[in-house]
Design goal:
Structural class: alpha+beta
Order of helices and strands: HHEHEEHEEHEEH
Number of strands: 7
Strand content: 5-15%
Number of helices: 6
Shape: elongated
Low-confidence stretches: 307-312
């Protein structure tokens, strides 16, 4: 009897356990179904967003391709326009030389046969001759500017010590009978075209001499500063007239001048030539100055591999 009682209790416990398992299984299935539905919805959302991203990427790539083609075309047109402009400037400059020579030559002939002319008329002849010479100088500067782009570029290792020394020698005649103190430090070797870079430093040094002409003792300093990695910064500093930095943006423009012609002669082409040459070298040029307290011009150029290693 006791055996049957225990058996009944065991069977009841088993049945209760089975019922609980069935209930738990049903609950678990419902949860799995709900979670599966959530995951399915999330997957659909992800797939939808993925398609949208792919569509946007394709649209962006298409826009980039179109924009690149437009920029390439615009760059080609700009290059052609620049070449045509340079060719035009070069041709015009050459064509202007002949009439200028005629003007200068005939004004000299008139002066030789001007015994009967009054002083005012002689002054007119002097003005014609002076203007013709000035126009000739302007044409020479324009030709030099055009050549900076037309000239072939031959980058080699440049010894700036020797190059700046040579540029200084060329500028010395402009400083004759003047007191000029030169301070030229050790300069690094750079990568560049020697002929073009020599023109840069001739321009900068001749400007330093010109704009210190009213100083009793002119100071001209050339040195090097640390630049970005693989870069050398060379500066040319003077104690001359300086200029107002508010107008620095037009400093390197063609025919742009910071001083009146009556104060300092110049065509306004030299610094434009400097900028064009340095740009061809992949470098930078800028200036810092104060009125009547001098100016400093900075030129950043690529160091040679050997110089970069030594600097490191």
């Amino acid at each position: 009897m006791n055996y049957l009682h225990y058996l009944a209790i065991a069977i009841a416990a088993v049945l209760a356990t089975v019922a609980l398992l069935v209930l738990w299984n049903r609950t678990l299935r419902l949860r799995v179904a709900a979670r599966t539905a959530e995951l399915s919805h999330a997957l659909e959302s992800v797939q939808k967003h993925e398609k949208e991203v792919l569509r946007l990427n394709a649209e962006l790539e298409q826009r980039i391709t179109e924009r690149t083609a437009q920029l390439t075309l615009a760059n080609r047109e700009l290059q052609v326009a620049n070449e045509q402009l340079e060719s035009f400037s070069y041709s015009v400059s050459h064509d202007l030389r002949a009439p200028l020579r005629h003007i200068d030559g005939f004004s000299k002939l008139l002066r030789e046969h001007a015994q009967d002319l009054d002083p005012k008329s002689l002054g007119f002849l002097d003005t014609i001759a002076t203007s013709a010479k000035w126009m000739g100088r302007l044409i020479d500067d324009l030709l030099a500017l055009a050549r900076t782009t037309r000239q072939e570029f031959h980058p080699v290792q440049i010894d700036l010590d020797a190059l700046v020394g040579s540029a200084r020698e060329q500028c010395l005649p402009d400083a004759r009978e003047r007191k000029v103190q030169w301070k030229i430090g050790r300069l690094p070797a750079v990568q560049g075209d020697g002929t073009l870079l020599r023109a840069v430093f001739v321009n900068l040094l001749s400007n330093a001499i010109k704009f210190t002409s009213r100083r009793e003792v002119a100071l001209v300093e050339v040195g090097a500063l640390p630049g970005d990695e693989g870069e050398a910064v060379i500066y040319v500093k003077d104690n001359g007239a300086g200029f107002d930095m508010r107008y620095a943006k037009k400093l390197f423009g063609v025919f742009q001048r910071m001083h009146a012609q009556r104060d300092f002669e110049g065509t306004g082409v030299g610094l434009a030539t400097v900028q064009r040459i340095i740009t061809r070298h992949g470098g930078r040029v800028w200036a810092d100055a104060e009125p009547d307290r001098g100016a400093t011009f900075y030129v950043a150029l690529r160091r040679t591999a050997q110089a970069s290693t030594k600097a490191a």
